[in-house]
Amino acid sequence: MTSDLIQHNKHLVWDFWQRIDAAGPAELPAIAATGLAEDVAWTGFHPFNELTGRAAVVDDWWRPLRAAFPDVRRDTTILLGGVFEGKAWV
User: Fold this and answer.
1) What is the total count of domains within the chain?
2) Domain range enclosing 13
3) pLDDT in the model for residue 1
4) Vertex 19, ends 56 and 8: CA angle to 5°?
5) What mean pLDDT do residues 63-87 have?
């Protein structure tokens, strides 16, 4: 894999985050569909722990987060990417 592919993947992730961050509650499912697998496995802190499926991540994580903290923002300082065991990651 080339560094061009890694950079491309980093741009995809960055663009996804930007769209999610700017989305309203009604837009979240459509945007999540562009960046998350239908059967995504999301692991977080208690009380969320593990969420399975794109709808669960939207309905049980993003919507409540936005309702509780409407002005929440993401500050990304470093966005890493590379190759591990033949697979690209970001």
Assistant:
1) 1
2) 3-89
3) 58
4) 105
5) 90
Structure tokens at 47: 């009380």
User: What gap in Å lies between CA 5 and CA 69, rounded to an integer?
Assistant: 35
Mean predicted confidence (pLDDT) in 2-13: 89
Is residue 66 within 8 A of residue 72, CB to CB? The reply is yes
Model confidence pTM above 0.70: yes
* Mean pLDDT score, 50-67: 95
**Percentage of the chain modeled with pLDDT above 90:** 66
What is the secondary structure of the chain as a DSSP string? --HHHHHHHHHHHHHHHHHHHH--TTTHHHHHHHHS-TT-EEE-STTT-EEESHHHHIIIIIHHHHHH-TT-----S----EEETTEEE-
pLDDT for 59 beyond 70: yes
| Cis bond before residue 47 (omega within 30° of 0) | yes
Distances (CA, A) of 88 to 3, 16, 20: 10, 17, 22
